[in-house]
Amino acid sequence: MRIPDHSITGDGPVTIYLFHGAYGSKEYYKFMIERLVKRGYRVVAWDAPGYGLSPLPDSLTLQKLADAAAILVARTAGDKNVLFGHSMGGQLAPRIFARIGGLINAVVISSTIGWFGNTTPEDQEAFVSSRLGGVADARDMKDTTRQVVISMFGPSAKGEECDLVTKVASSTSLETFKAAVSAIKGAGDQEAIQAYSNISVPTLFLAGELDNTGKVSGMRRLAAMVKGSTLQVIDGVGHYGWAEKPDEVMSALDAFLAREKLNPKH
Fold first, then answer.
1. Model confidence over 215-265: pLDDT tens digits?
2. Furthest-apart CA atoms within the chain: distance in Å
3. CB atoms within 10 A of CB 1
4. Rounded to whole angstroms, what are the CA distances from 245 to 162, 224, 240?
5. pLDDT tens digits for range 33-91
6. Domain boundaries, the chain
7. CA-to-CA distance for 87 and 20, rounded, in angstroms?
8. What are the two backbone dihedrals, phi and then psi, of residue 60, each rounded to the nearest 5 degrees?
9. Contacts of 250 (CB under 8 A, 6+ apart)
10. According to CATH, what is the number of the domain 6-259?
């Protein structure tokens, strides 16, 4: 398998891996990467297969994405390694751990549904219809994506970090996004439940108070499955808390990593 396209920024004993959502690419983590590197972390951000310059496989599944991510981590791992998975990336994180758990020291899961069955039938229908309903071509996709992404922010979201997320997410190709939605819908519930339940390293769940996708209720169910995990709800934000209130998210991340002796000072 081709190693996915990725960036490596900074240097240090702790590497943080950033896995993006179904909308997006590594580019929307620009400001987060800057903050982490200034704190002394080494940061690896990937483009999932089908995103950025990485070619889209003939068939895309969460298992294939996790296989690719595990290869990336295995080839680039540092002394200590932390997975940060947002949205679809938060579905991949436990699957990556299942493959190469011996390399992973901690997991951070941000704003994810966990698995499709962890949402109500109404939410499942809305998830698909709002994103693909009436989308016929690339122009429709860009317009639809922009509106969906904007709707996923909290009401007070503004600034260049939110603008960057909107710009990058809106550039997701129609073919790739359709494949990602199919992969998310087609993933087995029991396989996902087992993957979350088997995480055995310190884990932080980050939920946006106003997130209508990775809802707090669903994130709470996920956190209850991972022994000893912590759920942190970021007030007043939607789906992209790390862009909407980056200082609060970084504060939660700093505290978690310091507690687990995974900051550069340790």
1. 999 999 999 999 999 999 999 999 999 999 999 999 999 999 999 999 887
2. 52
3. 11
4. 10, 25, 9
5. 999 999 999 999 999 999 988 888 888 999 999 999 999 999 999 999 999 999 999 99
6. 6-259
7. 7
8. -110, 125
9. 35, 242
10. 3.40.50.1820
